[in-house]
Every structure is written in C-alpha cells, then in structure tokens.
Write a structure and sequence with these properties.
Layout lengths: L1 H9 L2 H9 L6 E4 L1 H7 L7 E5 L3 H12 L3 E5 L4 E4 L8 E5 L5 H6 L10 E2 L13 H7 L1 E2 L6 H4 L2 H13 L2 E2 L1 H10 L8 H12 L4 H10 L3 H4 L1 H4 L14 H17 L1 H5 L3 H9 L1 E3 L2 E2 H11 L4 H4 L1 E2 L5 E2 L3 H15 L4 H13 L2 H4 L8 H11 L3 H13 L10 H24 L8 H8 L5 H16 L5 H17 L1
Parallel strand pairs: 2-5, 7-8
Antiparallel strand pairs: 1-2, 1-6, 3-4, 4-5, 9-10, 11-12
Length: about 475
C-alpha cells in the first residue's frame, strides 16, 4: 500500500512543490484530506501539512518555490496558506498540536483525517493510530475522540459535508456527538461556517448533505434562513411548503446541470461554460447558482398573506429576500461580490415567469429582461427553470402546458443572455457628451434616459449609426417633454 500511496501523492503538484521547497525539513507531515483522498484513489489537489517548525516561514518557502503568495489563513488555528500565482492549488501549513505527530493526530476530527505521512518519505508506512484506513475501507465517518466536537463545533457541519461528499455513513456514536454539539455552530466564525456550507452545497450530493445537517440538528444554527421556511404553506401551484419547495428547486437544478442538452437545447455548451466560470469565494457560477437556489425564497415567511377565500400570496418576497440574503452573507462573511450576485438572483427570480404569457417576446421585451437582470440574466434564467420544475401543484401555473411554456421561453432567452454575459450590453454608436450636444441638453439624468433608449435601439436593430442614435434620442426627448 505504501508504494501505491506514494505514487498517488507524488502525482500532486502541491506535494511535488512542497517537497522541493522543504527538502531539508524532516518534521513535516502530510495529514488530513490529502492522505485520505490518496487512499481512496481520488485526485490530490490541495495539501494540509503539520509542521514542527515555524508555519509562517515554512509557508513562505513553499510560496517562493511556487511563485505565488503566502498569507495567514487562521490566527486561531495557526494556519498559513501558500499557493502558486495561478492559484490552481494550495498548501495549508499548521504548527503541530502537542509534542509530536501522534499528539497532533489525537486532536483531529475524524479517523479518516487522522492519518499522517512524512513529506520527505512518501513511501513510509502511514501513521494511523485510530484506524482511519480501516474506516475508509468500511466507508464510515467516525470521530477520533469524544471531545472532537466540543473542541470545535464546526465539525458537526463538516460531518454532514464529508459524509455526503465521500458517500460515507456516519458512525452512530459520532452522529450523537455531532448532534449534541450542533448548537455550538451558532458561535463559530461566519467565514468558517461558509467554507463548509460552500463545499457542501457545491459538492457532489448537496441534497444528502443538507438532509444530514437536518438529522444532526444543525440547520437552524448554520442556515437559519432555510430553517425558517419549514411549515410555510403556499398556494395551489405548489405541492410542498416553502422549505420542501426550496430543496426541490435545488434537486431540479442539479438535474438540469446533469442534462443541459435536455433543458437548454443548443445552448448547452455555452451554459456549461457559464456554470464552470469562477465567480468569487472559491465558487464557480454554478456553485453560486446552487447557493441562490437555497436562498431564493427566504423572503416568503415574512411576506406571506392569506386572503379571503384562502388564497395565499407572497407579494414582495423577491425584494425582502434580497435584503435577507445580504444579511445572511454578512453573517457568513462572504465577499461583497458573492453577496451582490446572490442578492441579484433572489431579486430577479420572478421576472421570466411573469413573461410567459407574452410569448413570443419582441426584441424590446427581451432587451428589458436582460437589462433588468444584468449581470445575472443567464444565471437567473436557469434558476427559474428549476423553480418552475419544482412547483407541481394543482394551480394554473403548475400545469404541464405552463411548465413547458416556461421552459421554451427560457430556451428562447438563453442565447441572448449568454451573448450579453460574454460581450456586455449593446455599444452605442455615439458618446454621451456628443449626444447631449447633438440634441441640445446638458449631461444629467435626462441624458441617461436618452442613452438607455439608444442602447435599446441598438439591441432591437433600430439604431445602426450615429444619425439613427440622434434621431431616436430626439424622438425620446420630445416624448418626455410632452408628458
């Protein structure tokens, strides 16, 4: 096993660069996910090492060889990160806890992560005091000790994430310990919670991960916005409450990802590229879209109204939801870029559904949709597909005909949305100051409205030249002044 393990680890760029940088170091150990993944014959990309020396100095040496940065990742845990300039992988360097590697492994979370290999001797026999290799064979996730979760309640969330990612079963005693520790998740730093939630939701089986988090009692502490959706009944277009509907939207989105050709037709290659595009906070646009699916209806509990006759409405839940998404992202310490993206998905997730009765769309209507939803028009169009597929009630918008009409409209919109995403909004053939002089106005809000009309004209084909732009602007100006 040692030779095979050495081969798998040695194929990792992170391992090779770390070995080159630390050739003279002997008290450096590969631990955690890298050893686990190599034993599972999974690709090893990122690397965790425990060191007996100065973690900052060691991370800096790796970064110099890799040609990238080194920075403190966690002051609380004494961890530094090194990576190459292109950030294709990283090495996290943590000072060993206790007097040696055995003491360090005793403080780790799960047995499958408590296996160590010396960086300098990849073919050495693994140090595995807690039977992690055997647990890997049995596909079991088991805590190293009873204090594992009291030392770090985040491990309750990590248990759900790892079990779903690795397709492992939680050891019953470990599940009990995680459940007991789950309330402590509320006190864990937001950025640490987000790191686990990001991996869970963007991982291979987010539905199982969220179900496990539920079973462990962790949802109300890690994702209180999702917990608040339980029992919120909807109108007859929905067969599930808001919580169940949200999970079904995520399930449908995963299904759309798996069969893009079925749902997006000829646009499938472009959609695949869109979803794979890096966005922010180590998430692709696809991963962010899954997060958006989880959060898109969180405004419903506070906007629910039941009218005479039993009709239920959620007027304004898109706007309220966007504000709640902003608060959730602040709690989880996400980047502002990701927060804005998720807010926009929530704010605009209703627009396409309102346009189903207006098919076929004119070029002007299509332009207004893209401009309104910019810069998430393509992303939110996909979200609406999953949202509509997840509503299988007895109401009129849940009929087979209406669902198919929505899917057809999404296919009609996607080509222009992908083009807009790739190239930006239409370019006007005249600069703003030049247009202002041509129509005799000063720069200001009025000019902004004229430029918007010119841009729309470019999109619809009405404006092809500078003269066309001036003509449209003058016509718009006269209409504004006649009101």
């Amino acid at each position: 096993m040692s030779e095979l393990l050495a081969k798998r680890l040695g194929s990792s760029a992170a391992v090779r660069l770390a070995r080159e940088a630390l050739a003279s170091e002997r008290d450096v150990w590969i631990v955690g996910g890298a050893v686990r993944d190599a034993l599972l014959d999974r690709a090893v990309t990122d690397l965790d090492v425990a060191v007996g020396g100065d973690q900052r100095a060691i991370a800096s040496r790796i970064a110099r060889v890799a040609g990238g940065p080194a920075f403190e990742l966690s002051a609380e845990f004494g961890t530094w990160r090194a990576m190459p300039a292109e950030r294709a992988w990283h090495v996290d360097v943590t000072r060993m806890r206790g007097e040696g590697i055995e003491s360090d492994l005793a403080g780790r979370d799960f047995t499958v992560n408590a296996i160590a290999i010396p960086l300098a001797e990849l073919a050495a026999a693994p140090i595995d005091p807690y039977g992690g290799a055997l647990d890997l064979e049995h596909r079991a996730l088991r805590a190293v000790s009873e204090r594992a979760f009291t030392e770090d309640p985040l491990r309750a969330l990590r248990a759900a994430r790892l079990a779903s990612e690795l397709e492992f079963e939680l050891d019953p005693a470990t599940a009990r310990l995680a459940s007991e520790a789950a309330p402590g998740l509320a006190e864990v730093a937001g950025e640490r919670q987000f790191g686990e939630l990001r991996s869970l939701i963007a991982g291979p089986d987010p539905l199982r991960g969220l179900a496990l988090l539920d079973e462990l009692g962790g949802t109300r502490f890690a994702l209180p916005e999702l917990e608040a959706l339980r029992g919120v009944r909807q109108n007859p277009n929905h067969h599930l409450d808001v919580h169940g509907h949200t999970l079904e939207v995520l399930a449908q989105l995963v299904e759309v990802e798996r069969d893009l050709a079925r749902y997006t037709g000829a646009m499938a290659p472009g959609v695949e590229r869109l979803l794979a595009e890096p966005l922010a906070d180590e998430l692709t646009r696809g991963g962010a879209l899954r997060f958006g699916a989880v959060l898109h209806d969180i405004g419903k509990p506070t906007t629910r109204r039941q009218h005479d006759g039993g009709l239920v409405s959620f007027v304004g839940h898109d706007r309220k939801g966007a504000a709640l998404v902003r608060s959730a992202c602040a709690r989880l310490k996400t980047s502002r870029a990701l927060a804005r993206h998720l807010e926009a998905l929530t704010l605009h997730h209703l627009h396409l559904g309102f346009m189903t009765h207006e098919r076929p769309l004119s070029r002007r209507q299509l332009y207004e949709y893209l401009r309104t939803c910019d810069p998430v028009a393509a992303d939110v169009t996909l979200l609406t597909v999953a949202d509509r597929l997840a509503a299988r009630g007895t109401g009129p918008t849940a009929s087979t005909e209406m669902v198919e009409a929505h899917l057809e409209l999404a296919r009609e919109v996607l080509p222009a949305a992908l083009e807009w995403h790739a190239n930006g909004p239409p370019r006007t053939p005249i600069a703003g100051d030049e247009l202002a002089r041509a129509v005799g106005i000063e720069p200001g809000p009025e000019l902004g409205r004229l430029l918007a009309e010119v841009e729309a004209g470019v999109f619809t084909g009405e404006v092809r030249s500078r003269d066309d732009a001036i003509r449209v602007a003058k016509g718009t100006l006269n209409s504004l002044r006649d009101r």
